[in-house]
Amino acid sequence: MIRFQGVTKLFKRHRVLDGIDLGIELGERIALIGSNGAGKTTLIRCLLGEYTHGGEVTIAGGSPRRERTAVLGKIGFVPQLPPPLKMPVGQLVDFAASLCGTDPRRMHEIAARLGLDMQDILARPFNRLSGGMKQKLLIAVALGRDAKVLVMDEPAANLDPEARHIFFQLLAERLEDTTMLISSHRLDEVAPLVNRVIEMDMGRVVLDDRVADDTGLASMYNVHLSLTRADAAIAKALAGWSFADRRDGIDWHGQVPGPDRLRFLGMISRYVGLVARIEMAEIPDDLVLQ
Ligand SMILES: Nc1ncnc2c1ncn2[C@@H]1O[C@H](COP(=O)(O)OP(=O)(O)OP(=O)(O)O)[C@@H](O)[C@H]1O
Fold it and tell me: Domain span at residue 276?
């Protein structure tokens, strides 16, 4: 599906990509990880045909540089930094939909599922939306088309827990027929979403590993937590996960998306001295709200 062959990129004399060879097949979900400056964004930009470079990149046999419109119509891209566009939201969605020959209503539908009130923001300039709203809209624009390849740069970073869950569900609906490339600094953010991890360092691939495929992308867990005493810091952290205080800041209840279990427990581990009891149970599929 995607081929990088001997891809190199230099900025002045600085070699940012140093002979990248990678083959990525349909249905693979890749976490592209690595520290700041490792070359992840540059590799993605080469994949999107934005840079000249050495070597060759192809998507389904086509070159994203030479056949830009045709190839880019097959890719959904969620950038890390939203573009500073002043265009009203409604116009932006219509424009994006026309570029890839899709119905804008599909994008509206996904935005609504993510909790965006589209009617309310149609006439507002994109750059005036909040960070989370921009990210939801960019996800809707990327997913509301028949993309065979989804490229996402830290896509869930600004989303609240409810929207993260819907986002994971949306990805779960696309598992069979899409190749995903998800870039992140942090493996724990993306590990549950992927089946292969590629780590870059100084412009090279330093690790390429298959990981266990978590089939529970759309799963949800009921969580009961009891503390040894009330504490303002953990109360604030739990409120950020939309947990409800069931008894004087001591007993808490909430729901955690399956792919976020590790992140949630990571947060709890900071307060482990306060934890008396924790219970996590998967909610049966038919009871998880869509
Ligand atoms: N347009 C540019 N001109 C000059 N140097 C650049 C340019 N874009 C990136 N670089 C350099 O290329 C290297 C790789 O950058 P890149 O943005 O690809 O890394 P990254 O892995 O995506 O990092 P981050 O996680 O911080 O986003 C860095 O040293 C960066 O300074």
Answer: 220-287
